[in-house]
Structures are given as structure tokens and as C-alpha cells.
From TrEMBL:
It comes from Bifidobacterium lemurum. GO terms for cellular component: periplasmic space. Residues 45-274 form the Solute-binding protein family 3/N-terminal domain. PANTHER family: ALIPHATIC SULFONATES-BINDING PROTEIN-RELATED (PTHR30024), TAURINE-BINDING PERIPLASMIC PROTEIN (PTHR30024:SF47). Its main location: periplasm. Gene3D superfamilies: Periplasmic binding protein-like II (3.40.190.10). This is Extracellular solute-binding protein family 3.
């Protein structure tokens, strides 16, 4: 499941680019200068800025996997945050870890921001897509030419959904009028007829799908989406505490394994966030994600999506991602 918001980060880019952060990051368990500097076990508290969406970094706050994995160090969950505030919490030094979508992570690295990703939360793509509004008369992607499609922010997940879905169908995304709306206003605009469709993901997609008369036009399984969730820490934290990053990855794997056996791990989190029964029922139909490492295959997928971002005009050139990821499978 994915969640990305691009707003405000270009304003932060200049300041963040000035932060001097050195040493390439290799495998989590590697023997490096960063490992020798790791202060694991000295009472470090890992501060997690969790989001109001049920990814595994969020749901792990209700289980003991993270707490047990990090012993004798500790974990503190702060939130729930909307994505922009979560990113600000980490970049300001108030938190160490958070989550986003792979596309937004690529955008952040392209801007020169100091983040390191350590886990992919992979899923089929059925929890992202484009939904036509009730009574819009829209039956296909091509029917959206000249119509208004709501997204959160240019360059973020909704924008990616539009461009990738249209490119895969051999259609021209520039013929659609994308309307940027905050996540909180997305559903209201959709149900009131202010927009003709919405391109979104996770609970916002489910909310659109359960509106009577709405029509799902396409989901990520149909346009080969590469956009999945990704978990990341500040680069400074990754360099100072590589062993803690490895332990966080292991805890996410355990959380993922639990959800495969009992998907209520996810739906219970949405109930806690106030989701209605209809919404939870739709969310329960989505694919249950699995945690994967950012190994050679994971990095190749990110690099392929980065090339898509260049093709779509979201970024000028694909960033070198090698020093901004950690392979925790070793």
C-alpha cells in the first residue's frame, strides 16, 4: 500500500542538500566504519513517525516485534502523521524513520534529500487506481480526455497512476486535466461532482470505490505499476545505527508474516483510524503486502521506476540510488 505527498519538499531541498553526509551504505550487516560507530545497546530510542495508513511500520506499533527486535534499545511511535508532517518530523530531527511510496522516495533522492530506504512493502497494485465519479458517464480511460481527475500532488502517486495507466493503454495523459487536492478534500470533491474521477490509493481508493454509482476504471494490476510502499530512515541515522536499521527490517518481516496469516492486522488498524464497515470491507479485498529487501532485484525495480519518472517529466534525470538504499537480506 502506498502513500505519497510531494508538497513542500522542494522548499526544503536547498536547506537539506547542505547537510554533509558521507560514506556509501552497503548491506545492513556489513562490516564498515559505520558499523564500528554504531551505538546499539547504549539506550538509543528509535523514533518512528507513523502514518494514518496501515502499512507495516504503522501496524507494528500494536505488536511487540519491533520492541523485541530492538532490545536493549527501545522504540517510540509518534503519530499518526499525514505524510508531509511525517517527513518534516524526520528532517527536523524529531523522528528517525517513516514511510512513503517508491515514486516519492525517488523524487526525494532526485532533490538531493538525505534519506535511506531499507525495506519494500510489495503488493500487487490492486489498492491503487482511477475511479470515475457517479453519474459522470465515464466508462473508460479515453473517456477522461478533457475531464477533471483529482490527484494529491504533481509528481506523487496519483500523478504516477494517471501517467502510467494512460501510457500502458497507449493514451495521452496530457489530455486529462489533473486537479491537485489535499487528501482530506479528495473524497468530498469526488462525491460532490467537482471532479470527474480520482486517481488515488489505499483507503482513499476504497472510499471512492464504495460510493454508489462509482466505477473503477483501472487498478495497478492492469497497468504494471511499480509504485509500492517503502520504509526509510534519515541518512544520518542509517550511518550511525546500521544494526538498528537491520533489526527494524527484521521486525517488519515478522509483521508481514503475521498479516499473511491474519489480515485483520491491516483492517483493525483502519478501524482504529475510524474507517466505516463498508470501507474496511473494501480494504479487506486488497492484496496483503509482503516485506521485501532492497536487494539487486529491489534496486532494479526502483531504477526502472526512476526512468519512468524521467519519461513522465516528474524529474529531470534519474538519480543514483545505490547510496540511498540498504540491502537487509544479507
Amino acid at each position: 500500500m502506498t502513500f505519497t505527498i510531494h508538497a513542500s519538499h522542494r522548499r526544503l531541498a536547498a536547506a537539506l542538500a547542505a547537510i554533509a553526509l558521507v560514506s556509501p551504505l552497503a548491506a545492513c550487516g556489513s562490516s564498515s566504519a559505520a558499523d564500528s560507530a554504531d551505538t546499539t545497546g547504549d539506550g538509543t530510542t528509535v523514533r518512528v513517525a507513523y502514518l494514518s495508513t496501515a502499512n507495516y511500520l504503522t501496524t507494528s506499533k500494536d505488536d511487540d516485534f519491533m520492541k523485541e527486535a530492538l532490545r536493549p534499545d527501545t522504540v517510540e511511535f509518534k503519530g499518526p502523521f499525514n505524510p508531509t508532517d511525517a517527513f518534516t518530523a524526520v528532517t527536523s530531527g524529531a523522528a528517525d524513520a517513516t514511510s512513503t511510496g517508491t515514486g516519492h522516495f525517488i523524487d526525494l533522492i532526485a532533490e538531493g534529500q538525505p534519506w535511506v530506504a531499507f525495506a519494500l512493502e510489495y503488493y500487487s497494485g490492486d489498492s491503487q487506481g482511477i475511479v470515475a465519479a457517479p453519474d459522470s458517464g465515464i466508462e473508460s480511460l479515453e473517456d477522461l480526455y478533457g475531464k477533471k481527475v483529482a490527484i494529491t500532488t504533481k509528481g506523487a502517486t496519483g500523478d504516477y497512476i494517471v501517467h502510467q495507466a494512460f501510457a500502458h493503454a497507449g493514451l495521452d495523459a496530457s489530455k486529462v486535466e489533473e486537479v491537485e487536492l489535499s487528501a482530506s478534500n479528495l473524497n468530498a470533491a469526488f462525491t460532490s461532482g467537482q471532479v470527474d474521477a480520482v486517481a488515488t490509493f489505499d483507503q482513499n481508493l476504497a472510499a471512492a470505490m464504495v460510493v454508489p454509482g462509482a466505477k473503477l476504471l483501472v487498478d495497478g494490476t492492469q497497468y504494471d505499476s511499480l509504485n509500492v510502499s517503502i520504509h526509510m530512515v534519515s541518512k544520518q541515522f542509517a550511518e550511525q545505527h546500521p544494526d538498528l536499521v537491520r533489526k527494524m527490517y527484521q521486525a517488519l518481516v515478522e509483521e508481514s508474516d503475521k498479516a499473511q496469516k491474519d489480515p485483520s492486522v491491516i483492517t483493525d488498524a483502519y478501524r482504529e483510524f475510524g474507517a466505516s464497515d463498508d470501507l474496511v470491507e473494501q480494504i479487506a479485498e486488497f492484496d496483503v503486502p509482503v516485506i521485501r529487501p532492497i536487494d539487486a532485484d529491489g534496486l532494479a525495480m526502483l531504477e526502472q521506476q526512476a526512468r519512468q519518472y524521467v519519461d513522465f517529466g516528474f524529474i529531470d534525470s534519474a538519480p543514483d540510488l545505490k547510496d540511498s538504499v540498504i540491502d537487509c537480506s544479507e
